[in-house]
Amino acid sequence: MQTQTNETKPNDEMQLKKLQYLALNFDPYNPYYNHEIENILKEFNLSQLTENPFSFTNRLLQLLDSYDNKTRVTE
């Protein structure tokens, strides 16, 4: 079971870094963004939420919390 934890930790950390990047660099009130942000939005199925900044922000915070908890548990 320790091996599985070590395998998933780097992936969870990378996902957390992507979400943190999105939180810092994406403005849900501005409809213009770069390809990197577009790819992250698609990866986490957030593209459809960009029309409603409140729903988007809520979902992003939920994802950040989830991945943050996963990385803390596996430390």
Characterization of this structure:
The chain is mostly helical. The chain has one domain. Helix content is 72%, strand content 0%. Helix 1 runs antiparallel to helix 3. It is globular, with a radius of gyration of 14 Å. The protein starts with a helix and ends with a helix. The model has no long low-confidence stretch (mean pLDDT 88).
Features:
globular
How would you state the average pLDDT, rounded? 88
Q: What is the approximate shape?
A: globular
How far is the first residue's CA from the last residue's CA?
Answer: 14 Å
Number of strands: 0
- Helix-strand string: HHH
How many whole angstroms does the radius of gyration measure?
14 Å
Number of helices: 3
User: Largest beta sheet, briefly?
Assistant: none
Q: What portion of residues is helical? A: over 70%
Enumerate the spans where pLDDT stays under 50 for 5 or more consecutive residues: none
Q: Which percent range describes the beta-strand content?
A: under 5%
Oligomer category: single chain
Instruction: Estimate nothing, just give the exact number of structural domains.
Output: 1
